[in-house]
Amino acid sequence: MTAPAIRIRRLRCRFDGEGGPVDALRGVDLDVPRGAFAAIMGPSGSGKTTLLHCAAGLRTPTEGTVELDGTDLSALDEPRLAELRRQRIGFVFQQFNLLPALTAEENIELPLRLDGRGPDSQRTAALLAQVGLAQRGGHRPGQLSGGQQQRVAVARALVTDPEVVFADEPTGALDIRSAREVLGLLRHLADRGQTIVMVTHDPVAASYADAVLFLADGLVVDQLASPAAAAVANRMAVLVESAERAANAVGAR
Ligand SMILES: Nc1ncnc2c1ncn2[C@@H]1O[C@H](COP(=O)(O)OP(=O)(O)O)[C@@H](O)[C@H]1O
Ligand SMILES: [Mg+2]
C-alpha cells in the first residue's frame, strides 16, 4: 500500500473576520489517490480556496493534518515548507499569474530558477510542446490569448515534476473553447499519472475529473465518482439553494 498523494484529516481553519471568527473549514477529511484528478465544488464561501491553500502548504490550518505523499506538512518549519512548495507542488491560478516581462519559456523556467536550478531548454521545449505551444516559447503573455497563457501556466506548474498540481478556478477567466482546451490538457496529464486537485464552480469542468467532492459551509457533504456534468449541476443547485436559505435566515435574525 502506498500513501495517497494527499491525505487530509480533521482539517479546521478559522479566520479572524471583522464580524468575529469565521470557520472556513470545520473538520474536512479527504484522500486523493496518486494519479487521480479530483475536483472540489461548493457554493461561494464554502471553503474551497481555503482547503486548496491548506492542502498546498500555502496556509497553516488551525487544526488537523495534511500529508503530501506521507510528509506531514505541520511538521515542517516555514523554510522547509517553502522548499516543499517549490519542489513538490505546482499551482495554477485563475488569472494565470504569468510575469508580463518574461517570455513563455522564461515563465516556465522560473520555478527552477527560484529553486536555484538552471533551466533545461530541452525540458522547456518538451513542456511547450505538451501544452500545444511549441511555436510560442518566445512570446510574452501579452502576445498570447487567455487560453494560451493558461497553458503556459500549466507548463510552469509542471516544470519541477510536482507530486500534485493544484488549480483554483483554472478556467474561470477563459471563454468556453479555451476552457475546454485547458481541461482536456489537465485530463491528459492525469491520464499520464499526474495528480491534480482543481477547484471549480463549473459542472462541465468538474466532469473532466475522476471524482468531485462537494463542500458546504466548511464540510465535505457529498462525493461523486466519474461525475457527469448534469449530475454535478443538480447536486450544486441543491447546495447553492440551501446555502442561500441559510444566509437569508442569518440576515433575517
Ligand atoms: N483571509 C481571510 N480572512 C477572513 N475570512 C476569510 C479569509 N479567507 C476566507 N475567509 C472566509 O472563509 C470562508 C471560506 O472562504 P473561501 O475558502 O475563499 O471560500 P470559496 O473559495 O469556497 O468561495 C468565507 O466565509 C470567507 O469569507
Ligand atoms: Mg474561492
From TrEMBL:
InterPro entries: AAA+_ATPase, ABC_transporter-like_ATP-bd, ABC_transporter-like_CS, ABC_transpr_LolD-like, MacB-like_ATP-bd, P-loop_NTPase. Residues 6-242 form the ABC transporter domain. GO terms for cellular component: membrane protein complex; plasma membrane. It holds the Pfam family ABC_tran. Signal peptide: none annotated. Keywords: ATP-binding, Nucleotide-binding, Transport. PROSITE patterns: ABC_TRANSPORTER_1, ABC_TRANSPORTER_2. This is ABC transporter ATP-binding protein. It comes from Amycolatopsis dendrobii. The lineage of its organism: Bacteria, Bacillati, Actinomycetota, Actinomycetes, Pseudonocardiales.
